Amino acid sequence: MTRSERRATVIDFTFRLKLLCCGSQEGEVAMAKVIKTTKRKRGVFGTIVWWLFLAFNGLMALWVFWAIKMAAQHAQATTDAAVQAGSVIGGTIATGLLVSLWLFGSLILGLIVALTRGKTVTVEETVA
Prior knowledge:
Blueprint: H1 3-6, E1 9-18, E2 29-40, H2 44-76, H3 81-115, E3 120-127
Antiparallel strand pairs: 1-2, 2-3
Helix pairs in contact: 2-3
């Protein structure tokens, strides 16, 4: 299922419908539009995994921001060049590890989120 099929799509069909109201004359035809909406309904486990995925990404973003902030504060708190260089290097290593942990966690949780989607439900409406 592609992304465009999940969204509400409008498909034009060339159904020939005779208009019986609104002052139409005999033999007039109109083009009908069929609005096709495709949705997926998650179950309880899928919903829990979805919220866990969102919470994980939010907490990891805060953690990375906090690690960068703390490394910068530690580097600014001292006047020794060696200590500043060490804190900057250590902060870079810590941030890199956090980002890689974030990446792997998001990939694993994202795969689980993708696998816990529900069945496809398609609703079609004909609009004159």
